[in-house]
Design brief:
Motif (GXSXG): 119-123
Domain PNPLA: 86-278
Helix content: 40-55%
Protein name: Patatin-like phospholipase family protein
Signal peptide: 1-30
Radius of gyration: 20 Å
Distance between the termini: 44 Å
Number of strands: 11
Active site: 121 (nucleophile), 265 (proton acceptor)
């Protein structure tokens, strides 16, 4: 059995891959990096003079600016404050669930044009297409029902991974992303941004040990010739499972100094992002339209599952990490429910709970992804669908 198959067998997706990466991380070496300080990190910008991101937690001043700019922009074009939020979670190949659900939701005829779309990990890859709406349904279907492992990564093997920062080579994923992130695609994102809609993607800055929320519409509107490269690298970083995929270095400047930040999967700080944690935990003020609807598409199970764990290092480590990250996500859902109650917002959560296709198959197995896609379609069409608040 190949190591990548064992990755999928351990617990599929980000958890198992992380476990595998940790096992050989001590052997990896990377080229020296330019040192920089916490002050540099806080002041750094990847696009000169154009703020395109904020810390995922604690950056209250910047969140207030983003909120006020958004509300003012929508008011100028005659729109009310945002009233629909779509949050797409991580979940590796289980992103096929969200792709199927979104497509079936379009066919239902009541899928809204979301005012705010957020994505983490595989959800980050889906988010730009979900943001542009049903015109991109066919693209999502193509990506999540026709790709295979070969379209995402190349196996390095143990010897090939030595001296690298990731077990697998993600050149195929970079090629896949670049195929769709064209200047014309970015122009469409930018046009919607100017209309008062927002697209956010989360990465994890390993140097700062903090989540970063990227305003992808702001990147798309920047006149810099580097906008496509930065947009694509943020998507790649958000979906780069630590240890399994190499981290993504993003160039930044602070005080005239140039350096590279190390970013990995946004799932390292949380499985999804709907509302800033500062707002959730501190009850900070937030402007929401009456009857705001928040939809969370969770690409996995939210409820704990029972499985007898094999007495092996990867199985034990994978089980422990799956428990930890699952509990973090369940707590985040509880916080979001409390927030929605207090804000008089409607919260809908769609997740994969029953008859999940076998995790025994390798990750990014095309047949399994098509099963997951059909699960998403069914979730949108059954009576009393999860999309009903």
């Amino acid at each position: 059995m190949t190591r990548v198959k064992r990755l999928g067998r351990a617990c599929a997706g980000r958890i198992a891959a992380l476990c595998l990466g940790l096992c050989i991380a001590g052997c990896a070496t990377v080229a020296p990096r330019t040192p920089y300080t916490l002050a540099d990190a806080s002041a750094a910008s990847p696009m000169a003079g154009h703020p395109v991101r904020m810390w995922a937690r604690g950056d209250t001043v910047r969140y207030d600016q983003v909120r006020d700019e958004l509300v003012a922009q929508r008011r100028r074009v005659g729109l009310p404050p945002p009233s629909t939020i779509l949050a797409l979670s991580g979940g590796s190949d289980k992103g096929a669930f969200s792709a199927g659900l979104l497509n079936a939701w379009t066919r239902r005829g009541d899928r809204p044009q979301f005012d705010v779309v957020t994505g983490v990990s595989t959800g980050a890859l889906i988010a730009p297409f979900a943001f542009l709406g049903s015109s991109e349904d066919a693209t999502l279907t193509q990506i999540y029902t026709h790709v295979s492992q070969a379209d995402i990564f190349r196996k390095r093997g143990i010897l090939g991974a030595l001296g690298q920062a990731g077990v697998v080579d993600t050149t195929p994923l970079q090629t896949l992303i670049a195929r769709y992130i064209t200047p014309a695609f970015l122009d469409r994102i930018a046009a919607e941004h100017r209309r008062g809609r927002r697209l956010f993607v989360v990465t994890t800055n390993l140097d700062a040990q903090r989540g970063v929320v990227w305003d992808m519409g702001a990147i798309a509107t920047d006149p810099s010739p580097d906008r496509a490269r930065l947009f694509a690298r943020v998507l790649l970083a958000s979906s780069s499972i630590p240890g399994a995929f190499s981290p993504v270095l993003i160039d930044a400047t602070a005080g005239g100094r140039h350096f590279s930040e190390m970013h990995v999967d946004g799932g390292a700080v949380g499985g999804f992002f709907a509302v800033p944690r500062t707002i959730l935990s501190e009850n900070a003020s937030v402007v929401l339209a009456p009857d705001t609807r928040i939809y969370v598409l969770y690409n996995g199970r939210l409820n704990p599952t029972f499985k007898v764990v094999r007495k092996r290092i990867l199985s034990v480590a994978g089980g422990a990490l799956a428990t930890l990250l699952g509990e973090i996500d369940r707590n985040a859902i509880d916080e979001l429910r409390d927030f929605a109650r207090g804000a008089k917002a409607h919260l809908s959560i769609c997740s994969i709970e029953d008859d999940l296709p076998s995790d025994e198959k390798p990750v990014f197995d095309t047949v399994r992804m098509r099963q997951l896609y059909r699960f998403g379609e069914q979730a949108a069409t059954i009576p009393h669908s999860c999309l009903t608040p």
